[in-house]
Amino acid sequence: MFQMLEKYSNNLEELIRERTELLDIERKKTEQLLNRMLPSSVAEKLKLGLAVEPEEFSEVTIYFSDIVGFTTIAAHCTPVQVVDLLNDLYTCFDATINAYNVYKVETIGDAYMVVSGLPVRTPDHAEQIATMALDLLSQSGHFKVRHLPGVPLQLRIGL
Description:
The chain is of the alpha+beta class. The chain contains five helices and four strands, in the order ααβααββαβ. It has helices at about 1-35, 40-45, 70-75, 80-95, 125-140, and strands at about 60-65, 105-110, 110-115, 155-159. A four-stranded antiparallel beta sheet has the order 2-3-1-4, covered by helices on one side. The protein is flat. The relative contact order is 0.14. The mean pLDDT is about 90.
C-alpha cells in the first residue's frame, strides 16, 4: 500500500513538473507576442496589471512604404516564396531601423509602417524618419529576391 502511494505521489510530481514547464513555455510565447504588438512601456504595465493611461503626442512623423508591383511579383511566386520574400525584406528592414529612434508599428502584407516621436517623444522625429527612409530605400535597391534575382525591388514611400 505504501509503495502504491509513493508511486502515485511520484507520478503526480512528474505531471505537475511537466505542466509547469508547458505553462512557462506558453507564458513566454504570450510575452513575446505582447512585446511584438505593443510598445515595451505599455506591455510592461499590462504584465504588471496596471492601467495604461492614454497619452497625446502632438508631434510625430510616420513612415509608410509598400512594394511597387507587389501583386505582379506575387503572381509569379508560390505562397511560400511570397512569405520568404517578405520575411527576408522585413528582416533586413528591421535590422536597419534599429539604428534610428523609431518604433515599428506594423507590417501588413507588403506594407511597412514606422513612427518616430512615439512612444518616446523625440525632438528630431522628422529627421530620424527621413534619414531612415533614405536608408531603407538604399537597402531595397540592393535587395535580391531569392527566386527572382533579376527582378528589381522598388519601394513606394510616404512620410
